[in-house]
C-alpha cells in the first residue's frame, strides 16, 4: 500500500467563496502514482468546507443565497457564539451544512467521478490562510 499526504492552502479575499480545487487534487493523484485507491479531501478549519457538486455559476450563487438564508451573518448579536468576541457563528453553521470532507475513488490512476462532479473548497470566514488535507492511499 502506498500513500501521499499533502496540504493545500487557501486565502480568499472575501468572507465567503467557493473555489474549484479539482485541478489541484488531480495533480496530487498523478503525483501519488496510485492506480487504484481512495482520495480523502478534508477541510482543516471549522469555518470551511469541502464538497462535491456541479461547477455551474448559477448553482454556486444559489448555494450562497441558500446558506445566507439558513444562517445569516447579521445581525451578529443573535448568535451566542459571537458573545465570545467572535463574529463567525454563521460560518460554523454553514460549514456544518456543507460538510467537512469528501472521499473519491481512484480508478486507473484517475479520480472516479460521476457526471459533472467536481471538488470545491467552501470558505465561510475568509481573509486568512486555511489548509485542506489531501490523503491518497492505494496501490
Indicate the topology.
Layout: E1 2-10, E2 17-20, H1 22-32, E3 36-43, E4 48-54, H2 57-70, H3 89-98, E5 101-107, E6 110-111, E7 117-123, E8 130-138
Antiparallel strand pairs: 1-8, 2-7, 3-5, 3-8, 4-7, 5-6
What does it look like?
This protein has 139 residues and is an alpha+beta fold. It has a single domain, classed as Jelly Rolls (Sandwich). β5 and β6 form a beta hairpin. The chain is elongated. 25% of the residues lie in helices and 38% in strands. The strands form two sheets. It has a five-stranded antiparallel β-sheet with strand order 1-8-3-5-6, covered by helices on one side. The chain has a three-stranded antiparallel β-sheet with strand order 2-7-4, sandwiched between helices.
Summarize this structure as a short list of keywords or feature phrases.
single chain, 139 residues, alpha+beta, Jelly Rolls, elongated
CATH topology: the name is Jelly Rolls
Class based on secondary structure composition and strand pairing: alpha+beta
- Uncertain runs are none
CATH architectural label: Sandwich
The counted number of beta strands is 8
Main β sheet profile: 5 strands, antiparallel
CATH superfamily name? YjbQ-like
Instruction: Give the distance, in angstroms, between the N- and C-terminal Cα atoms.
Output: 5 Å
CATH class: Mainly Beta
Series of secondary-structure elements, N-terminal to C-terminal: EEHEEHHEEEE
Strand order of the largest sheet: 1-8-3-5-6
Summarize model confidence as the mean pLDDT: 97
**Count of the separate structural domains:** 1
Number of helices: 3
Radius of gyration: 16 Å
Helix content: 25-40%
Assign an overall shape.
Answer: elongated
Strand % is 35-45%
Amino acid at each position: 500500500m502506498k500513500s501521499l499526504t499533502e496540504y493545500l492552502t487557501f486565502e480568499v479575499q472575501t468572507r465567503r467563496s467557493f473555489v474549484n480545487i479539482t485541478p489541484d487534487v488531480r495533480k496530487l493523484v498523478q503525483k501519488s502514482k496510485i492506480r487504484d485507491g481512495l482520495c480523502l479531501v478534508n477541510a482543516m478549519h471549522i469555518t470551511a468546507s469541502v464538497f462535491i457538486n456541479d461547477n455551474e455559476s448559477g448553482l454556486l450563487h444559489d448555494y450562497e443565497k441558500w446558506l445566507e438564508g439558513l444562517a445569516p451573518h447579521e445581525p451578529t448579536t443573535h448568535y451566542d457564539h459571537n458573545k465570545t468576541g467572535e463574529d463567525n457563528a454563521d460560518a460554523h453553521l454553514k460549514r456544518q451544512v456543507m460538510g467537512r470532507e469528501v472521499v473519491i475513488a481512484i480508478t486507473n490512476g484517475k479520480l472516479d467521478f460521476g457526471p459533472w462532479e467536481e471538488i470545491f473548497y467552501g470558505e465561510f470566514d475568509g481573509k486568512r490562510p486555511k489548509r485542506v488535507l489531501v490523503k491518497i492511499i492505494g496501490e
